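User: Here's a structure from my thesis project, written as structure tokens. My advisor, Dr. K., wants to see whether a designed sequence matches the one we expressed. Can you design one independently, without my sequence as a hint?
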């Protein structure tokens, strides 16, 4: 059984800070609606976020950050084709916008299963910003989709070299190892994720699955119980 890869929505739910964005001379009202949209995005109120992003776009269609933010909200609604259209709009405005390439790759991989295209997009993001750990994690996700587990693990390892505290990369690494029946190593990866965030129900559940595959039933039961206590219901 192929183990699921965790990345998105947590990875792509990036919040945008108006103080950090590049403004292309648009009216300040566009930033106002952008900021309001981000507040709704943070609350996972995706429809309301999109309404506000659309108001910002009406004022300035070349506000590339808004297109990416709208794309992320659309991913939250599982409207993946529309999200990719938004990421493409951002890329048209700024072909070197690494975050747009990255999020496009994730939507292609996780939302649509178009892994070859996703890898191209993720590699483009990495070429623009090779020190971004999230981009390597995203590439690993796309590679797992093609069953290229060794190369995926290399990508997760690079992500963890850049950010050893990224629990998502540890979990994704563990899942890729499970797909190779390397359960002992997978448990170690999940333990790293749990050390970073002991309240991560998914990490506990993944650990339980790996322990079960190792025949360590009592430990697996304890891990599953912990996952349930933390709200896991899958």
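Assistant: Designed independently from the structure alone:
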């Amino acid at each position: 059984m192929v183990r699921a890869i965790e990345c998105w929505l947590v990875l792509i739910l990036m919040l945008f800070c108006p103080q950090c964005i590049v403004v292309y001379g648009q009216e300040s009202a566009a930033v106002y609606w952008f900021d309001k949209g981000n507040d709704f995005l943070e609350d996972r109120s995706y429809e309301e976020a999109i309404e506000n992003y659309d108001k910002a776009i009406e004022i300035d269609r070349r506000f590339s950050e808004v297109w990416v933010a709208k794309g992320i909200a659309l991913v939250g609604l599982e409207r993946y084709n529309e999200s990719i259209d938004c990421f493409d709009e951002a890329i048209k405005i700024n072909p070197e916008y690494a975050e747009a390439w990255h999020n496009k790759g994730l939507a292609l991989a996780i939302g649509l299963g178009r892994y070859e295209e996703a890898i191209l997009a993720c590699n483009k993001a990495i070429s623009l910003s090779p020190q971004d750990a999230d981009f390597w994690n995203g590439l690993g996700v796309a590679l797992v989709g093609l069953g290229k587990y060794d190369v995926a693990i290399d990508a997760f390892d690079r992500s963890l070299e850049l950010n050893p505290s990224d629990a998502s990369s540890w979990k994704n690494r563990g899942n890729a190892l499970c797909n190779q029946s390397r359960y002992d190593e997978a448990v170690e990866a999940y333990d790293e994720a749990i050390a970073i965030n002991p309240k991560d129900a998914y990490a506990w559940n993944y650990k339980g699955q790996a322990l079960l595959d190792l025949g360590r039933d009592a430990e697996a039961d304890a891990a599953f119980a912990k996952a349930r206590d933390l709200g896991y219901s899958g």
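When you compare it with your expressed construct, this may help: Residues 7-26 have pLDDT under 50 and may be disordered.
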